[in-house]
Design goal:
The chain has helices spanning 13-26, 38-51, 98-111, 126-134, and strands at 4-7, 54-59, 62-71, 81-88, 116-123, 138-149, 152-162. By secondary structure, the protein is an alpha+beta fold. A hairpin with a 2-residue loop joins β6 and β7.
Length: 163
């Protein structure tokens, strides 16, 4: 797929909501319970984008996926560690758009002299596990039944990439 990977714009908020809210409403891959309104997503984009990279993959069809990083923990000792996130529009999952998008995010993090990236995956999720491992992440932790959504307990695994 021939997509342009670029920095997010405030005008991308509706498309990002469309991508993300599908996963909020239909899956346990995010523990967010309620769909995110566009103004709230625009505020997230602005707040996160001030400190960390947020990228989108777009074609003439619009935004097909996005990836960003956030602070891992609030203490100063963690300042060089981030948590990464990537979502691809449901009808484009498996199209190959996520891999170059995520690699572009990793490169943007390297350019900021960050050291470690943590990917948090609701389990089971063999597709996300394979994707992260293809991107060079290694499993470093597993917490059974720490999340709850749709009246079920959900395990969470942590994958890490040292930049």
């Amino acid at each position: 797929m021939n997509a342009v990977i670029r920095k997010v714009a405030a005008t991308d908020a509706p498309a990002i909501c469309g991508i993300y809210n599908h996963f909020v409403s239909n899956t346990v891959v995010t523990f967010e319970q309620d769909p995110v309104p566009v103004p709230d997503m625009a505020a997230r984009i602005e707040a996160i984008g001030e400190e960390f990279p947020w990228l989108v993959a777009a074609t003439d069809e619009g935004v097909l996926g996005y990836a960003y990083a956030t602070r891992w923990r609030s203490r100063a000792a963690y300042d060089r560690t981030v948590e990464s996130t990537v979502y691809v529009r449901n009808d484009r999952r498996g199209s190959g758009i996520g891999f170059p998008l995520y690699l572009a995010l990793m490169e943007a993090l390297r350019q900021r002299s960050l050291h470690a990236v943590v990917g948090c995956i609701a389990l089971p999720n063999p597709g996300s596990v394979a994707f992260h491992e293809r991107c060079g992440f290694q499993k470093v932790g597993h917490f059974p039944q720490v999340g709850r959504k749709f009246d079920q307990w959900v395990d969470v695994g942590f994958w890490q990439l040292l930049l």
